[in-house]
Specification:
DUF2854 domain-containing protein, Threonyl-tRNA Synthetase, Chain A, domain 2, single chain, 2 domains, alpha+beta, 7 helices, about 45% helix
Amino acid sequence: MLRQTSLGTLGLGVGFVLTIVGFYAYSTGNATLNLAGFFYGIPVLLGGLALKAAELKPVPFSKPTSKEVMALRQQQATVTQNQIRKDVTRYRYGQDAHLDSSLSSLGLSPTDEERPVLKGLEEKEVDGAYALVLEFESPLIPFEVWQQKREKIKGFFGPGIQVELSQPAENCVDVALISTPQV
């Protein structure tokens, strides 16, 4: 629940209420409440503004996850798949983009302007295995470059991962991280 709550919005709301209470207490001559309202309200309001300015919103699921796929996730998902899913589906602060350091390490983000942007996420079954599909918008990095980096992506997100790349539309790249269940 807290993962889906914007701390910036929460800080703005609480700070605003405390500041208004401080102003009201000042106008009615209530010195104690006035001091508490200003002393806590304004810093919390400013902190909320700072968090809101540095906020990176969660990546949405492009399709709802079925119960069968959730059960498959429980059985087969790797630690890396779970970590990626949890990280990109929560609010982040102080980052330019989701998975920015991973893309840089893979050589898929030479500059901030060229960095692919994670637009969606999907969980599905591929040949009986759990797959986490990362849906990138990649207008400046061609699909051929992604294909050249396939083995590097596999090594980066592995072990226990197979990588499949697809291009569902122009300037879009889907990276399917498929678990390889141990038999």
